[in-house]
């Protein structure tokens, strides 16, 4: 039950990232790249301070540091750039669809064959997600940008690899802090170059505040929690669990951004959650029988 609670809390943090990103870009006070760079730098500062306060030191080197850091940068840059054009719902579908494929592939390559019920649950959750987020009119479908869709797919691969790397972590806080700190200089250089070439890209106070909140809290702390529970989840189940994030993000949009609650959303959410629940059911009793 504790693992289930922590997993649910992590998924809420992930969904909050989408909501904060949507709020910042919709407000027009910050551009996507500045949001992503500030988000990463704020996460690095918060996690480094927490690691030093709780562990007495910050260990930058260890197993999986470079794959984790590089995949984190790929995810954040692709995510930020893609949402400059993509509809939020369609972007979430591409992102978490690719994450699921990447993590299932990682599980198979690692020699872990998901049981049939997990495949069935993953398929059911993915069908519900597709139905929820698929454009309902030809006019919307014409607005899809292949370039931005590819960027979101790239972000999905990055996040999938980041999650797979986290399954080897022995100290979630140190690993997550190191991933952020090692990549923060790159984000700083990107930010400096962006503002040097175009001073009009300087973000407003609201955009910066939302980026810092997303970086320090929902990203930094959320990712540290994710790394803490990943070793206790197999890769396939971790992939399926993340399919709840778009549903949670859209629910947050209804509550915080006054988006409409539709019967389609309610029924599709039930389908997604049923698929996740089916995948999460233990198989130990069935095997013993």
From TrEMBL:
Domain of life: Bacteria
Source organism (scientific name): Roseovarius gahaiensis
A cellular component annotation (GO) from this entry: membrane
Membrane topology of the entry: Multi-pass membrane protein
Chain ranges passing through the membrane: 36-54, 66-84, 90-111, 118-134, 146-165, 177-197, 209-229, 236-257, 263-281
Keyword annotations of the record: Membrane, Transmembrane, Transmembrane helix
Name by which UniProt lists this protein: DMT family transporter
Record-linked InterPro entries: AA-Vitamin_Transporters, EamA_dom, EmrE-like
Domain EamA: 151-279
Pfam families: EamA
Annotated localization: Membrane
């Amino acid at each position: 039950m504790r693992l289930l609670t922590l997993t649910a809390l992590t998924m809420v943090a992930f969904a909050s990232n989408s909501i904060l990103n949507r709020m910042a870009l919709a407000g027009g006070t910050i551009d996507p790249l500045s949001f992503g760079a500030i988000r990463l730098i704020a996460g690095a500062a918060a996690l480094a301070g927490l690691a030093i306060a709780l562990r007495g030191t910050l260990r930058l080197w260890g197993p999986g540091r470079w794959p984790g850091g590089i995949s984190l940068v790929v995810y954040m840059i692709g995510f930020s750039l893609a949402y400059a054009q993509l509809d939020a719902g369609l972007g979430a579908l591409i992102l978490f669809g690719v994450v699921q494929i990447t993590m299932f592939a990682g599980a198979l390559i690692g020699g872990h064959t998901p049981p049939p019920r997990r495949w069935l649950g993953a398929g059911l959750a993915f069908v519900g997600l597709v139905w929820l987020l698929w454009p309902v009119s030809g006019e919307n479908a014409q607005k899809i940008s292949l370039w931005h869709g590819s960027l979101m797919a790239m972000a999905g691969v990055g996040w999938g690899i980041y999650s797979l790397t986290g399954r080897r972590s022995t100290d979630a806080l140190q690993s997550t802090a190191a991933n952020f700190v090692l990549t923060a200089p790159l984000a700083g250089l990107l930010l400096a170059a962006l503002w040097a070439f175009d001073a009009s890209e300087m973000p407003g106070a609201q955009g910066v505040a939302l980026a810092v909140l997303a970086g320090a809290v929902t990203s930094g702390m959320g990712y540290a929690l994710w790394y803490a529970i990943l070793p206790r989840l197999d890769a396939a189940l971790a992939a399926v669990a993340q399919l709840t994030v778009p549903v949670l993000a859209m629910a947050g949009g209804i509550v915080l951004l006054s988006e409409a609650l539709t019967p389609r959303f309610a029924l599709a959410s039930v389908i997604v959650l049923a698929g996740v629940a089916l995948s999460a059911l233990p198989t130990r009793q069935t095997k013993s029988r």
